[in-house]
Design goal:
Blueprint (H helix, E strand, L loop, with lengths): L1 H12 L3 E3 L2 E3 L1 H4 L9 H9 L1 H16 L5 E5 L2 E7 H4 L9 H14 L5 E8 L6 H21 L7 E5 L12 H7 L1 E8 L2
Parallel strand pairs: 5-6
Antiparallel strand pairs: 1-2, 3-4, 4-7, 5-7
Helix pairs in contact: 3-4, 4-6
Length: 192
């Protein structure tokens, strides 16, 4: 399948040379892709939007490996589940310094795949007042969006929503369950 793609990419790009499985073309080198983006990935970004999400998923899995972030493919979207122990201190919407590294890895990929929409959802556990938790979850989602924007992700691609305690993924009766419920989810989908 990939060799068919490479052949098609060579035809589309005209004059492109395929060597050792990598597409070599000065056209791609002149664009603003990150240093870690291979020329094959860059060609996929520009010339094959139908495989864009597949390539982006691979890059996200690679860059977020061993960070504690769960990367899941759900049809036409990629879902990142970022647990609360990485993101914010209890009752706070200030991003933990350790979370910067995870977000920087995410920014690195998002900037290469500009044809996606990024939905950021904040979640809390059920401890405390539901209205407070709702507002806190929205401020947390906004903090993540602001960080991504400051690092160069176009704000028109970003949306935020605070879901409070309404969508738990574990019981709120235990400390471990509450920790799982305090999270940020990022949903990445093609622009339509």
């Amino acid at each position: 399948m990939k060799s068919i793609f490479y052949t098609l990419a060579a035809i589309v790009l005209g004059g492109t040379l395929i060597m050792g499985g990598c597409i070599k073309t000065p056209f791609i080198r002149n664009n603003n892709f990150s240093d870690s983006t291979t020329e094959v990935e860059a060609a996929e970004i520009q010339h094959a939007p139908e495989v864009n999400l597949d390539a982006q998923e691979v890059r996200l899995r690679k860059s977020l490996d061993q960070t504690g972030v769960d990367v899941t493919r759900k049809g036409e979207s990629i879902r990142l589940n970022i647990p609360g122990n990485l993101t914010f201190s209890s009752g706070s919407y200030n991003i933990k310094p350790g979370f910067h590294e995870v977000l920087n890895s995410l920014v690195f990929v998002l900037k290469d795949y500009r044809d996606t929409r990024i939905n950021i959802w904040g979640h809390t556990d059920s401890v405390g007042n539901a209205d407070y938790n709702q507002a806190l979850s929205k401020r947390r989602a906004q903090s993540v969006a602001k960080y991504l924007a400051v690092k160069g992700v176009n704000t028109e691609r970003l949306s935020v929503e605070g879901l409070g305690e309404t969508q738990p993924i574990a019981t709120n009766k235990t400390k471990v369950g509450r920790a799982k419920n305090r999270r940020i989810e990022i949903d990445i989908s093609p622009l339509r």
